[in-house]
Amino acid sequence: MKIEKIDMEVLEGNELFLDSDGFKALKEKKVKTLNNTDYILIEIIPNMNEKLVKRDLKKVMKLGYKPILAHIERYPFIDLKFLYKLKKMGILIQTNFEGLKNNDTLYNWIELGLINVVASDTHNIKHRSYDVDDVLNEMDDRLGIKIKERLLIKNPEKIINNEEILETIDEEKINNLLYKNSSVRHFFQKLKSKKNN
User: Fold this and answer.
1) Which pLDDT value is given to residue 186?
2) Within a domain: residue 7?
3) ∠ CA 145-5-155 to the nearest 5 degrees?
């Protein structure tokens, strides 16, 4: 970057794959948290289930770390209900630019206040190096500048400064959506239709 005269500060931190080796590294304090803060970017095993994910993230928190669950869009078992449970536990959520592109579900989760950070997931210039301009423009159109700034600037700044991120979760809307899709609601609708017949 010096040779190319790119004015950018690079901060230390790595994504931790949360398997037995990852836990060992956490316990032995051999991980690079984000800018030496309490925040740690966590990647989970893709085929885990809800119970195991909650258990493992609680273990991370007991060790004194603040987990940020990376690229939420890659885990097919995570739905609105489970994501809301993770948020209630105090887990921060990150999604990738590439995953956000034309993804109505992720945009809905952002609007509900369930996603804290949008990032590139670029590991180097050869691997996952992609143009984010399309997604930035899409974010402007779908979210507006205020939410976009929170996801791309304000929350990341708070993370690297080890500050608390104030959540803006729309709990009423989430609960309404969960009820609308719940089996209890469907049960009562069936009961009501049987009475009317």
Assistant:
1) 57
2) no
3) 30
